[in-house]
Design goal:
The chain has a domain of 210 residues: UDP-N-acetylmuramoyl-L-alanine:D-glutamate ligase. By secondary structure, it is α/β, with parallel strands linked by helices. It is built from 11 helices and 13 strands. Helix 1 packs across helix 9 and helix 9 runs antiparallel to helix 10. The two termini are 16 Å apart. The strands form 2 sheets. A 9-stranded mixed beta sheet has the order 5-4-1-8-9-10-11-12-13, sandwiched between helices. Strands 3-2-6-7 form a 4-stranded mixed beta sheet. The radius of gyration is 18 Å and the shape is globular.
């Protein structure tokens, strides 16, 4: 089976507004992708750091129950998981607030076991990470992530990158754009979002965004265009793959579900346009539920 390593942060999630009935779960963009891949029959490894507290233990148990491999998780003796809250408006559009500044995941590279875990991760067939992953670390650590990605590509593996941009994770947009551009030459499959590219580079159309990523070295690019669908560009051609208009309950995790669906379908041998259609299907189901990760039974029958 293809060995997939996803590198990022898993956090405690509070979904709901004050005065309403809230839900406590877990999420984080890379974790959302990891869980979705596991539910689709793959066996992804999640690389991160957790604490040794009871919350960290419960998170690890929940992820293992989903089929996620935990062998690349480091443990910090003093830090705990990050926390974020989701608020949704009447249209299901979400906003986030984070408490993650001293979370265990941010100290991954300071832990003694990180070197051994990185060596194991370098044997992956697929490395998945995001712009949020890069935002957790300083420039030196970002270069180490680049080294990992370069090693995997040199071995013939894939590096899949979602240029997920959260402004509060960076000093400014220029810092984020520079970090993404420095990492771009290692990327084989790019999954940018048009809105993020507009904020970082001033370009918002799928064709131009795809061209920019191809010029940086990506072989395949899928630009997420929101309600318009996705612009897919690969050596065999280009496609605009539209999506069904839905009335969402909570748009949290839509892009992550799309990423997982697209990647799973491609690994199953589906053509890029068909993979994008499947990504839309999985994202469409995800936004009909509260929180970043939908109930397992809601997506059990969805297969690429």
């Amino acid at each position: 089976m293809t060995r997939i390593v996803a590198f990022g942060e898993g956090m405690i999630e509070i979904a709901g507004n004050i005065g309403s009935t809230g839900l406590i779960g877990y999420g984080g963009d890379v974790l959302n992708v990891t869980v979705a891949l596991a539910r689709l029959g793959l066996a992804p490894s999640f690389m991160t750091a957790l604490g040794v507290d009871v919350w960290s233990g419960e998170l690890a148990d929940a992820w293992a129950a989903e089929g996620v491999d935990l062998s690349l998780i480091a443990r910090h003796p003093d830090r705990v998981p990050g926390l974020y809250g989701i608020r949704t408006d009447a249209e299901g559009e979400r906003t986030f607030i984070y408490w993650r500044g001293v979370s265990a995941a941010r100290f991954f590279f300071q832990l003694a076991e990180s070197e051994a875990l990185l060596k194991q991760a370098a044997q992956a067939d697929v490395l998945f990470l995001s712009g949020i992953t890069l935002s957790l670390y300083n420039a030196a650590a970002q270069r180490r992530i680049g080294d990992l990605a370069e090693t995997i590509r040199e071995r013939g593996g894939q590096v899949v990158f979602d240029g997920n941009y959260r402004p509060n994770g960076w000093p400014d947009a220029r810092a984020a754009a520079d970090a993404f551009d420095a990492f771009a030459p290692y990327v084989s499959l790019a999954l940018p979002t048009a809105g993020d590219e507009q904020l970082l580079h001033g370009i918002g159309d799928g064709e131009t965004i795809a061209r920019r990523w191809h010029q940086a070295g990506a072989e395949e690019v899928v630009v997420k265009l929101g309600a318009e669908g996705a612009y897919v560009s690969h050596p065999g051609g280009t496609h605009l793959v539209t999506t069904e208009a839905l009335t969402p309950v909570d748009t949290t995790g839509a892009g992550d579900a799309f990423d997982a669906g697209y990647l799973a379908a491609r690994l199953a041998g589906r053509a890029p346009a068909a993979a994008a259609a499947f990504g839309h299907r999985l994202a469409g189901e995800t936004i009909m539920h509260r929180g970043a990760i939908p109930p397992r039974d809601a997506v059990a029958a969805i297969r690429p």
